[in-house]
Each structure stands twice: as C-alpha cells, then as structure tokens.
Automatic annotation (TrEMBL):
Protein name as catalogued: ABC transporter ATP-binding protein
All copies of domain ABC transmembrane type-1, residue ranges: 37-322
Keywords: ATP-binding, Membrane, Nucleotide-binding, Transmembrane, Transmembrane helix
InterPro entries attached to this UniProt entry: AAA+_ATPase, ABC1_TM_dom, ABC1_TM_sf, ABC_transporter-like_ATP-bd, ABC_transporter-like_CS, P-loop_NTPase, Type_1_exporter
Membrane topology qualifier: Multi-pass membrane protein
GO molecular function: ATP binding
Main localization (coarse): membrane
Residues annotated as domain ABC transporter: 356-589
Pfam families, A to Z: ABC_membrane, ABC_tran
Compartments it resides in: Cell membrane
Residues passing through the membrane, by range: 35-58, 79-100, 179-197, 261-282, 294-317
SMART domains: AAA
Length: 609
C-alpha cells in the first residue's frame, strides 16, 4: 500500500504533441462511418440554412421600415413564413445531427475503453508493479471521456464552422466589400491569439489529467487498505496526502481556467469591438444612402456569424489540444507491449502431462538476482514442497511456470518443451494457482468458483466446493451459492475465502497445481478441513506447495529447501531432519513457535476460567 513505484506514465515530449495521434484516435470511428456521414450531412445542411437567415431578416427589415404607411403586408407575411420554414427545417437537421453524432461518440468511447482494458489484461505483472492502479483507472475513465467530443461532435462542428465561415465571408463581400475589408482585418489577430494561448492550454490540460490520475491512485490505495489506515489511525495522514493531490490538480485546473478565460475575453473583445467599429462605419454608409437599413442588418448578422465561427474554431482548437493530452496518455498504454511474447510458431497445449523441468534457471528482477542456477526435474503427478526463509525465491520459482515472468537465463520446460514455445493461454489453462492473498470478485460464491471454468454446471460447482470442504459453510450463507461475497471477498472469513479459492482452482482441473501459502490464512479447524481435501486432490497432479508451516509439507514426495535463490537441500522430511542444516533449523524454530503458542493458549484458557 505504501510502495511508491517508479512511474513510467510520461511519454516523450514530442510524442505528446504529435497531431497524428488524433488521426489514430479517429480510426476508432471508422466502423460508424455511415452514421457519422449522416450526422455530418445533417450538420452541413443545418449550417447552410443558417446562412439564409440573415438575408431573409434583412428583407424583413426593409419590408417593414421602407414601406411605412403602406397597407400591403404581402411581402412581410411571405418573408416571415419563409423564415419560420427555414428555422423549422434547420432545427430538424440540428436535432438529427445531435443524436447521430452523440451516438458515434458514445460508441467510440465504449470501443476504446474495451480495447484499452483488454490490452491491459495482456500485460505482464512487471508492468503492473511499475504502475499504480489509480493512474490506470483514471486513463480508462477520465482520459477516454475527454476524447469523446473529438471523435463525434468536434469534427462535425469543424465542418459546420468551416461552411459557415466560407459562406458568411462570401456573403459579406457580396453585401458590402468595404465593410468586409474592415471586418476581415481582425481575423488574423484572432487566429494568432487562439494558437498562442491554445498551446499553453494543451500543456496545462495534460498537467490536470496527470494530477487527477495521481490523486485517484492515492485514493485507491487508501480505500483498498482502509483497515490498515484505521488500525494505524492514519486517517489524517491520508486526508493530507489526498488533499495535497487534489490541491495540485485544483491549481492546474485554475491555470487552465485562467487561460480559457483569457482566450474567451480576448476573443470577445476583438469580436464585439470589431462589430462596434463596423456598426459605426455602416451607419455612416446608411446615412449616405450607400446601404439600406436591411442590408446593414444583414451585414451585421453575417459579421456576427463570422465572429462566432472564429470563436467556435478557437474553442475547437482548445478542445483538440485537451484531446491531444488525453490521447497521449491512452496511447502510451496501448503501445505498451508485454515482455511475455509468443513465438510465431507457438504450439497448442491441450492436456499436459505435468512434467516440469528447470535447467540452470536464473531470474533477475531489475538489478536484483532472485534465482541463480536452479536445476530441478519434477515428474508428472509428484508433490513437491518448497520451504525456506522469506526472500529465498520460492514464489518466484513457481511463478515462472505459468509465465508470469520469463527466465533470465536457462530453460523452463513443461512436458519436455520450453514454456515460451507454447501458446500462453493454453499453458496457463494447465496451471491452477491458489495464492497466499486470495482475491475474490465482488459477485456471488458460485460466480467466484466458476471463474476458471465459466461453462461448468451447478453440479460441478457444488462438487468442487465439497472437495474443498466449502459446501457446508456456503449452504449456511444467506442465499447459499448465490450469496454475494463483497469486494475482494470481504464478507467471508479468511478461511472461507481460501476454501472458495481452492474450489475455484479444483474446478479448473489443472494438471499443475501451485499452492502458495494456501493454508496460511486458515485457523486450525479450517486448515484441517482443507488439508484433508488436498491430500486426496493433489494425487495425480504435479503440485508445488509453498509453506512456512512445516507441518503442511510432511506428506510431500519431495521437499526442496531454498535459500538465496538456490536449492540448498532436497529430500523427504525424515532424511532432511537427519541430515541437519537449514531444514532442521527451520523445523526447530517451528517447534519452538508451536510450543510458545501452546503455552500462551494454555495461559489464556486459565485466565478465562
């Protein structure tokens, strides 16, 4: 919980600013091209109809004010009806484009989240040890949500704004060339300001996204380990840590809001200031008889459309900058490649015999040598126990079998073939794992047992539970096999969680079984129940048992004693005791601990008499 791994979330600076990321992002919209094209067409038609409105409004002004005293209202009535018709059709097309493009955006976001999550599941454990869960979750949710607008409405708005800008400028020039020159002179200044401030907005947006991810990671750590937090009365410390992260994000958000406000203010001043100048000059033109009042109103509306379009384009530019920052974080994950690669001729593995061979196997994590020169031949069906002090390399050794890691040197073979030559999914399907820290999903008991074999019948689930001596307590739960276990199985005791995990592994029916401190979380009664089941169920499977309690390994066919990443002793319980050395030292420590615990329990019993 308190570990602070080296983060690798930052990509190269040049990569963040690469506009080609947007093209890559838009590729996710390709399957929805027909819907997008319809939405784009509706947008263009709506924008085109909006160009008709200023001209009709000018005609309405002239029909009203240039015929003062006239009783002929025909031109006025026809103009109003035409205006209403234009508004209606434009509104229909606007509603259509809003729905169609929103559908495209939602579909792209769903696909992107599925692709990102699916890709994360293919990465090696080494990747997850170097990245915080909260940061990955933030990218999966917040960053993907940020790019939604770009994959849907932003492109359509870009097309619509472009049509409106070209059409409005053309009609401006047609209405009054002189006023047009005055109006268009301000556009380069607006665009230059937008580009300059927009670049800074993109940088700050990335900082906001990074700070949100960091604070989310801190919250995830504290919430997942809330019992540790409360047991150490560290609530104030966690509030301080999370508050600091939120404050950093808040400051970055304020900087972004300030830049956006600056852009909005500058754009507003330039736009409305230019309109004031245009209105002043146009009023002089009307007084001189060079323009009619309707023409001036038409020109002003077109000028407003030009100003609004330029402002809209600058807003789109800012939106694209934010999307660039978010997409860079997304594609950094999608571009990650697992170090556990399959060769082009990966062999299928339908049903393994279970023979495992280590040939001069060494493993290094970073700069630390964890294993060195391990040689071991385990026949199919043999039960092998691994004992030794903490950090001896026991768990690392067995984690090489399902390729959670790859050997740094030497070979690891299953049934005489290097594990790197097998299809990775097939290989792992042959290996069952019951770890020390049992992870249950937040669903029902039945869903957790069926996790490794989704097609199993209810009878098979119950048989696996009975074999793991879990059926009795499951039946006693409210809802039985349909009882919800809570997040990480919090509603079950440690022994109950372990027995459900044991049933899950047994239902998978693996040829190779790994029990990593599988009984460490059990009380004496639960351990006896599980051990009784395991004594029968391990027969016929190649089984690796890791245990600190030496009483749990006496029945193994072979006991391997590990120290410093090497096998230093090997034999049965009796031969190892007779040989002395590290195993007998561990056994004597175990006996003293048992005697001490027994004495403490006896004193406790006397105290409660």
């Amino acid at each position: 919980m308190w570990r602070r791994p080296q983060q690798s979330t930052e990509g190269p600076q040049g990569r963040r600013r690469d506009p080609r990321q947007l093209a890559r992002l838009l590729a996710y919209a390709r399957p929805y091209r027909p819907i997008f094209v319809l939405g784009l067409l509706a947008t263009l038609l709506s924008s085109g109809l909006n160009l008709v409105f200023p001209a009709l409004f000018g005609r309405l002004i002239d029909a009203s004010f240039l015929k003062v005293g006239s009783r002929d209202t025909g031109p006025l009535d026809r103009t109003v009806l035409l205006l209403l018709g234009v508004f209606l059709v434009s509104a229909l097309f606007g509603a259509a484009q809003s729905y169609l493009l929103s559908r495209v955006g939602a579909s792209v976001v769903a696909d992107l989240r599925r692709a990102l999550f699916g890709h994360l599941l293919t990465l090696s454990p080494r990747f997850f040890s170097d990245h915080r869960t909260g940061d990955l979750t933030s990218r999966l949710t917040a960053d993907v949500g940020t790019v939604q607008g770009v994959t849907s409405t932003a492109l359509a708005q870009l097309a619509a704004q472009s049509v409106t800008l070209v059409g409005s400028v053309t009609l401006l020039v047609t209405t009054s060339p002189r006023l047009s020159l005055l109006t268009l002179a301000i556009i380069p200044l607006v665009i230059g300001t937008a580009v300059t401030i927009g670049r800074r907005i993109r940088q700050v947006s990335r900082q906001v996204q990074d700070s949100v991810a960091a604070s989310s990671a801190q919250a995830e750590e504290a919430i997942s380990g809330v019992r540790v937090v409360q047991s150490f009365t560290a609530e104030a410390l966690e509030r301080q840590r999370y508050g600091h992260g939120v404050q950093v994000g808040f400051q970055a958000a304020l900087r972004r809001a300030g830049l956006q406000a600056l852009m909005s203010g500058v754009m507003g001043f330039l736009s409305f200031g230019s309109l004031a100048v245009v209105l002043w000059y146009g009023g002089r033109q009307v007084m001189a008889g060079a323009l009619s009042p309707g023409q001036l109103v038409t020109f002003l509306i077109y000028a407003l459309q030009v100003g609004g379009t330029v402002a809209g384009l600058t807003g789109l530019f800012s939106q694209f900058q934010e999307a660039l920052g978010a997409s860079s974080r997304i594609f950094e994950l999608l571009d990650e490649r697992s170090e556990l690669q399959e060769g082009p001729g990966a062999e299928p593995l339908n049903r393994a015999e279970g023979r495992v061979t280590f040939r001069n196997v060494a493993f290094r994590y970073g700069t630390v040598d964890v294993l060195g020169g391990v040689n071991l031949e385990v026949p199919a069906g043999q039960i092998v126990a691994l004992v030794g002090p903490s950090g001896a390399g026991k768990t690392t050794l067995v984690n090489l079998i399902p390729r959670f890691w790859d050997v740094t040197q030497g070979q690891l073979l299953v049934d005489g073939r290097d594990v790197r030559e097998y299809n990775l999914r097939d290989l792992r399907a042959q290996v069952g794992l019951v770890p020390q820290e049992t992870l249950l999903l937040s669903g029902t008991v039945e869903e957790n047992i069926r996790y490794g074999c989704p097609d199993a019948s209810a009878a098979e689930v119950e048989a696996a539970a009975r074999a793991a001596n879990a059926h009795a307590f499951i039946e006693a739960l409210p809802g039985g096999y349909g009882a919800v276990v809570g997040e990480r199985g919090v509603k079950l005791s440690g022994g109950q969680r372990q027995r459900v995990a044991m049933a899950r592994a047994l239902l998978k029916d693996p040829r190779i079984l790994i029990l990593d401190e599988a009984t460490s979380a059990l009380d004496n009664e639960s351990e006896a129940l599980v051990q009784a089941a395991l004594d029968t169920l391990m027969r016929g499977r190649t089984t690796f048992v890791i245990a600190h309690r030496l009483s749990t390994v006496r029945g193994a066919d072979r006991i391997l004693v590990m120290d410093g990443g090497q096998i230093v002793q090997e034999g049965t319980h009796e031969t190892l005791l007779a040989a002395g050395g590290l195993y007998r030292d561990l056994y004597e420590v175990h006996l003293r601990r048992q005697q001490a615990e027994g004495g403490a329990l006896q004193e406790l019993g006397l105290a409660f008499r």
